[in-house]
Amino acid sequence: MKNNILLLALILIHVSVFSQTFVERNGRLQLKGRQLCNEYGIPVQLRGFNTYNISFCPECVKYEALKSNRDFWGANVIRITVYVDDMTNKRNYYYDPEFNKGLTDSLVSWSEKLGIYCIIDWHVLREGNPNSRIHAGAADFFNEMSTKYRNKKHVIYEICNEPNGDDVTWEVIADYANRIIPVIHKNAPGALIIVGTPQWSQLLDKVNPAILTDTYNVMYSFHFYAASHASLLPMFLREIHRIPVFTSEWGACESSGNGNVNFNVSQSYIKAMKHHVLNGDTAIISWCNFSYSDVDETASSLKPNSCTKGQWENMTPTGFFIRDCLLDN
Q1: What is the Cα–Cα distance from 244 to 192, expressed in whole angstroms?
Q2: d(CA 60, CA 273)
Q3: In terms of CATH architecture, what is 26-327?
Q4: CB contact set of 253 (below 8 Å; sequence gap of 6+)
Q5: What DSSP designation does 300 have?
Q6: Where are the alpha helices (DSSP H) in the chain?
Q7: How many CA atoms lie within 13 A of 259 on its CB side?
Q8: Residue 64 appears among annotated catalytic residues
């Protein structure tokens, strides 16, 4: 009888653990040294997608799409790309902040329900200096988001997507970060924050955390596109052992989001992010692929018009590759 009771207890524990969502199992994320860890100090790897510009193709911003991200694709995080300065679309944040905040709120709510993490990304891109006038709304945006979501364990904040321009040095980015990070941490002291790095978040070796006034739970972004950025891999492999890195955007194609794909170089990065050891130090790097969308370009994981038809698993060749990466345990 005792053996049967013990067996039943073990079965119940097993069922309980595996019925929990990813967020329920891991709680509020934190840094331990350079490593992203869960609430209990155990290293964790987030893997998932970027949305496309949420205001450009809102038809892909659906609960069913996010559920497919989790259940079919194997993702445990979604990066919410709030484009500010892409003037190809009059519904971007600069023109229509309420529309973008509404989509962001929906994705935060859905990701909480599904038990996956979400990154709220202020998408600096064409106007590459985060201190420029067009980005003046960043402090208010992050104040509102971090106040609203101060108690949400699954919310992460990325304060400047891809700073760029010859005059946009790490010192320029740090000046911006020293204004925005305190806004977030005042409202949500335990929040995880990702800071962009020079040259479209490529130059990790230029990052000097010492000039930031607050580095608590602060990580630094790295972006690569495999068909254009094979040469960055050696630098990446060094720097992930110096500073805490989050690869918040990468693609298998060229840096334009289109053109050729290079799955071999992609696989080299993926292998390194899963587990890389240098001089006895182990690094596990989280990542978000660009993008879960049906835009007609080689970066997209869905075929054109998939979102309007509700075909959340209508994979492109890139999509097949990314799904294999997401499901590889």
Answers
A1: 11
A2: 28
A3: Alpha-Beta Barrel (3.20)
A4: 225, 226, 227, 259, 260, 261, 262, 297, 298, 299, 318
A5: -
A6: 2-19, 22-26, 63-68, 97-114, 138-148, 170-187, 198-201, 233-239, 263-274, 317-327
A7: 12
A8: no
Contact predicate 163/195, CB 8 Å: no
- From the candidates 112, 162, 254, 297, which is the catalytic residue? 162
> Tens of pLDDT along 3-12?
555 444 444 4
Q: Which two tokens stand for residue 180?
A: 């925005």
Q: How wide is the angle at C-alpha 289 spanned by C-alphas 136 and 314, nearest 5°? A: 120
End-to-end alpha-carbon separation of the chain, Å?
37
Residue 37 CA to residue 30 CA, distance in Å, equals 5
Query: Would you say 81 and 161 are in contact if contact means Cβ atoms under 8 Å apart?
Result: yes
Query: How far apart, in whole angstroms, are the C-alpha atoms of residue 104 and residue 295?
Result: 20
Say if CB 317 and CB 252 are below 8 A apart.
no
For residues 161 and 163, give the distance between their C-alpha atoms in angstroms, rounded to a whole number: 6
List 112, 158, 239, 249, catalytic entry: 249
How many angstroms from the chain centroid is the CA of residue 7?
Answer: 40
Q: Where are the domains of the chain?
A: 26-327
The amino acid at 252 = A
pLDDT tens sequence across 33-69: 999 999 999 999 999 999 999 999 999 999 999 999 9
The question of whether 171 is a catalytic residue gets the answer no
Distance, CA of 200 to CA of 55 (rounded, Å): 21
